[in-house]
Design a protein that fits this description.
The complex is a heterodimer. Chain A is α/β, with parallel strands linked by helices. Helices cover 43% and strands 17% of the residues of chain A. The chains are: A alpha/beta, B alpha/beta.
């Protein structure tokens, strides 16, 4: 579905169902350089079970008009603008990786609009490896290879995608490469590296929160995820075994089950 | 700082499979089952509606077949793969997923004979027409594109004439026209050539051949590159518009770089059902484990055979892109640095009769309708694999009646050469053979 936010065209997947304002809204926010595609194994379920879903492409990503927003604070504000432009009063937010930072920022800036937050691989800060950051900002596709290597746990490296026939790392890499390594991934990495407000934002969040973590996550390790959760008043943590940072795909079934239980309880359809 | 992702030989052995998820079994288990238990009604509904991944019925997917699919996707650098009962069913499934009645495809004229007939005779019955272009005629591909053209299809090294397509240039032509390129890479395997790295958007294989190597099992596969964005063109409404068969699903919107494979599986395997048996998938996996070492030997033996044939008094001509006087020599050096493959076409002096005598008198080389076996294979295409083609089509494919197609195996090269000597000796006495 395409719509306008701040006079710019935005694309969001609605999970295969027409957008329906009468249903509770869940907004899914992707990670660095990625797009709405990463959420397909969560969004379709919620869309067919009583929710309106927007798996958005952040500005400058996927099919959304650019340029990419340069700070996490701006991205958090932009999510609030998405809710307004859909003429909705509130939403639950689900983020992955950088998307978690965006969720923290939005939920802390606009507490009245956010019913609950689901984080996958969420940390209070995502400092970037300087070499990786430089590669991405220079548009070097090696940055994508490194990102895919670090982001995936054993299932990503060996195989066993939840959807028969799909290849974890090549799919993830193609989403990033089909966008812009320099103008999306590079901007995102810089935004993550610059963002220092995660823990302060977390302390302001009062709505129910869950942080779903992979015990083999090398990008947002369990320790970092737990530290974030400790700073959110009403939060819980779920840890998935043998799972890397791409929780939403590597263990799509388990992460969906956890999310279903959490959202149904805190933002019922 | 370099990524520590697994490389080709490691992927050939390990990609797609984790013992820890299969009772610790080091070898891939053969899931000889038709169907899979659902957790509950909600789980079943979610699987049928593509809300979550998993297996329903082995016509659509199977855990053993899935390992093969992920392994080939890993080796080709693809985002997804879909295995089928044979290479031909992979081609048919690909075209039927991409095209509708009234559509047109541009096709290389040098293809396996069965593929030629599919495009020439069978697909027109479904309203899909083809224009054939000689593989070396790069501009010809451009000229053949019409408003309703939906893809360019070809084999990098044509069967049986061994002429090369300039894939990087032809891909640019296709993409400028907003259409994808499909390459049958059976002859090369990803060991020699990865079409997705040179502009192709989809790859098909007959896995029956070099990928398996053992000549025991039929199998095919479609691999998606994740490079062709259906959302950026209005040429493929069945990919981008709501599909009635899945509650209004837009495959391209929901699945992006794997949309085509998802549609081919969800629609094609559901409705046409050319599924690969788990036993055959397992057999092919055994072959892929040794792909690199076999391909090295295939290629080194092929080079020795090219030299032997080129200097043989009974041979009129040899076609192999490793030869310096071959028109494709420079292109092959660029695209196929690890080797130009183990298929050789040559003409035998004495024409059709001599060819028949040669084939009837080799003992080690097997006379059969296959290529890419570990054993050396020979055939006379005009009377076998391409016999259903008329004279005009044979001419377009640059096929002559003296042509022998040789698939060089991995036997000791001296034994292959000794066997050929027997064949050539007999070929000099065609009358004796005719009376046999």
């Amino acid at each position: 579905m395409k719509f306008k936010v701040n006079n710019k065209e935005v694309f969001a997947s609605t999970g295969g169902r027409p957008f329906d304002k009468s249903k509770p809204l869940i907004i899914f926010i992707h990670g660095s350089g990625l797009s709405h595609i990463t959420w397909v194994l969560q969004t379709r379920y919620f869309a067919f079970h009583g929710y309106s879903v927007l798996a958005i492409d952040l500005p400058g990503h996927g099919y959304s008009e650019g340029p990419a927003l340069e700070s996490i604070e701006d991205q958090g504000k932009w999510i609030s603008d998405v809710i307004d432009s859909m003429d909705m009063k509130e939403a639950s937010l689900v983020g992955h990786s950088q998307g978690c930072l965006v969720v923290l920022e939005c939920a802390s800036q606009f507490p009245d609009k956010i019913r609950s937050i689901g984080l996958m691989g969420g940390a209070g800060a995502i400092p970037m490896n300087p070499e990786l950051l430089e590669l991405a900002e220079n548009g070097d596709p090696k940055a994508v290879d490194l990102m895919m290597d670090w982001a995936h746990g054993p299932a990503g490296h060996f195989g066993g995608h939840p959807v028969p026939g799909l290849h974890h790392m090549n799919l993830g890499g193609s989403i990033v490469v089909n966008g812009s390594v320099k103008n999306a991934l590079g901007v995102d990495f810089r935004a993550c590296d610059n963002y220092k407000n995660g823990f302060e934002a977390a302390k302001k969040i009062k709505c129910p929160a869950i942080n779903i973590l992979g015990d083999r996550d090398r990008m947002c390790p369990v320790k970092a995820g737990k530290k974030l959760a400790e700073n959110i008043e009403n939060s819980e943590v779920e840890i998935i075994e043998n799972c890397g940072h791409m929780i939403l795909l590597e263990e799509a079934g388990q992460s969906l089950e956890i999310l279903k239980k959490f959202i149904r309880k805190n933002h019922p359809a | 700082m370099d990524p520590k992702t697994y490389k080709f030989d490691t992927l050939s052995l390990h990609a797609g499979y984790m013992p820890s998820k299969n009772a610790g079994s080091r070898q891939v288990p053969i899931y000889q089952t038709t169907s899979y238990m659902f957790d509950d009604v909600d789980h079943a509904a979610a699987l049928f509606n593509l809300e979550r991944g998993g297996h329903i019925y082995s016509r659509i997917s199977n855990p053993t077949v899935q390992v093969l699919e992920e392994r080939v996707a890993a080796l080709e650098g693809g985002t997804a793969a879909l295995a089928t009962a044979s290479g031909m069913s992979a081609i048919f499934l690909t075209i039927m997923t991409l095209c509708n009645a009234g559509d047109h495809v541009v096709v290389s004229s040098q293809l396996y004979g069965g593929t030629v007939n599919l495009f020439r005779l069978t697909l027109p019955k479904f309203g899909i027409k083809a224009t054939f272009v000689k593989p070396r005629d790069t501009e010809g591909f451009k000229k053949a594109i019409q408003d309703n053209t939906k893809c360019i299809y070809g084999e990098l090294v044509g069967n049986p004439g061994n002429e090369l397509m300039n894939l990087p240039e032809i891909s640019k032509i296709a993409h400028n026209a907003g259409i994808p390129v499909i390459i049958d890479s059976t002859y090369q395997t990803p060991y020699l050539f990865k079409p997705l790295e040179h502009g192709a958007d989809f790859v098909v294989h007959s896995l029956t051949k070099w990928m398996a190597g053992h000549g025991s099992s039929m199998a095919g596969i479609l691999v998606e590159g994740g490079t062709f964005d259906f959302m950026k063109t209005d040429k493929f409404p069945t990919m981008t518009e709501p599909y009635e068969g899945y509650h209004g699903l837009s495959f391209a919107e929901e699945f992006g770089p794997v949309a085509f494979t998802m549609k081919a599986r969800a629609e094609g395997m559901r409705d046409m059902g050319p599924c690969l048996s788990p036993q055959n998938a397992w057999n092919v996996l055994q072959g892929i484990e040794t792909l690199s070492v076999r391909m090295e030997k295939h290629c080194s033996n092929a080079l020795k055979m090219v030299e032997y044939l080129s200097n043989h008094e009974s041979v009129a001509w040899v076609s192999h892109a490793s030869l310096k006087d071959n028109p494709d020599y420079e292109l092959a050096k660029q695209l196929l640095p690890k080797g130009t493959g183990s298929m050789i076409a040559f003409g035998i002096k004495g024409g059709k009769e001599a060819g028949a005598a040669f084939i009837d008198n080799v003992k080690l080389a097997s006379h059969l309708a296959n290529v890419g076996d570990t054993r050396t294979l020979v055939i006379h295409p005009a009377s076998a694999t391409h016999s259903q083609m008329d004279e005009a089509t044979l001419k377009l494919a640059n096929m002559s009646h003296d042509m022998i197609r040789l698939s060089v195996g991995i036997e000791d090269i001296e034994d292959i050469i000794n066997d050929f000597e027997d064949g050539f000796r007999a070929a000099k006495k065609p009358r004796l053979v005719a009376n046999k």
